[in-house]
Design a protein that fits this description.
186 residues, five-stranded antiparallel β-sheet, 16% helix, alpha+beta, 15 strands, 2 helices, globular, Jelly Rolls, ten-stranded antiparallel β-sheet
Length: 186
Amino acid sequence: MSATDGAYYIPSAIDKTVAEVIVNQLSSLDLEEALVSDSVRDLSMRNSQIGWIPTDHWISGMMSHFVHHANNEHYNYDIFAWADPIQYTVYDGGDTHYKWHIDHRRSQFYKEKNLIRKLSISLCLTSDYTGGELQVLNGANRVMDTYPMKCGDILIFPSDAIHRVRKVKTGKRISLVGWFGGPKWK
């Protein structure tokens, strides 16, 4: 485990066998083209397919463990629940990517909880791809950190950090992405 100014990286947080179980269990998810906003599709900005996992699924419990660990060790944010369902993301070679963006926003799915996204988590489930590095601009100086993200790696970072997934050149990059939330910042 290592923590930079803004990101908390856990290499090999889960082993390949667990990653394969997750991919196999979620292989029947209905995938849709990822959107940039609620109804806008822009392949120059974001090109991937996504599916959704409910926050009461066993996988979200495992991911929650890592978020709470990183929060206790590094962030100490006021967080208490998933802000939205877990996103199953597939980048399948070629021109698949997600340009610079932030995750920080009010929960779209759990509006009644009045949550805002505070911590983002990315869990990589595959290694048989090239490219697809996760890059995060950290801290006031906006230093860019690059994470190759191989099978089992986890990266947790503030949801207001600017980040991207570089183009996947070959192979299939599958990951789980989630956002833990809490009350408005004070």
